[in-house]
Amino acid sequence: MNYPRANRMNPDLIKHNIMGPNPAKLLEELLNKFPLEPGQTVMDLGCGQGVTSIMLVKEYGLKVFAVDLWISASENWQRFRKEGLTREQIVPIHEDAHQLPFADEFFDAVVSIDSYHYFGLDKAYLGKHLLPLVKPGGYLLLVVPGFHHDVHADIPNELLLTWSAEDLDTIHDADYWRNVISATEGVEIFAIEELESNENCWEDWLATDNEYAVMDRAPMNAGAGKYMNFVAIALKKK
Fold first, then answer.
1. What span, in angstroms and rounded, lies between the C-alpha atoms of 113 and 44?
2. Going residue by residue through the chain (238 aa), what tens digit of pLDDT does each one get?
3. Which string of DSSP letters, residue by residue, matches 84-126?
4. Would the pTM of this model clear 0.85, i.e. be above it?
5. Which domains does the chain have, with CATH numbers?
6. How far apart are CA 117 and CA 125, in angstroms?
7. What letter does residue 161 receive in the DSSP assignment?
């Protein structure tokens, strides 16, 4: 697919600040399928260095609360200001996904690109920590790394060149995620499905000089990508 919105993003921002396969392209495909309305208030959960947060403001006209545990709010705020954003458009938050400091029913939507798998595999997480923060009728739009089919019982050698079995513990197929999400009451599942975006997102990541991208080149060059995909999870709060 084409990525006109992602391709309008500052290329230096992408090159130096993505922390995995290009999240701007993943976000664009997600919101092509499940659009949000300009002016809505959105949490970008696990935003990393804020690439998706900036895109949500600039390309989609959303008011964004950019939440991450590993990147400080001050660091992200400097990046947001450099991109010309104001405090009326975006608010950086440094917090754990289990201690989100927001009022119930505060958000029109939650977006999370390539991070929900780190905390959302706990079947209790969605209903206890995230769903209460979304207004009735609001959306939760997530993208997680996945497999076409589960491989954990017999992990292919290509996946183990630099990744361990433990590294792969949070990566699962769409059926696994459907089972996890279905444990939560009060949420309607719109879709849990494979995205088209995969290879081109990985290419963007592997072309950076990030030390983790350099490590990821061995398995991907050996063909690990043929087992992998990205899974979109689109939910609506009842």
1. 8
2. 999 999 999 999 999 999 999 999 999 999 999 999 999 999 999 999 999 999 999 999 999 999 999 999 999 999 999 999 999 999 999 999 999 999 999 999 999 999 999 999 999 999 999 999 999 999 999 999 999 999 999 999 999 999 999 999 999 999 999 999 999 999 999 999 999 999 999 999 999 999 999 999 999 999 999 999 999 999 999 9
3. T--TTTEEEEE--TTS----TT-EEEEEEES-GGGTTTSTTHI
4. yes
5. 4-237 (3.40.50.150)
6. 11
7. S
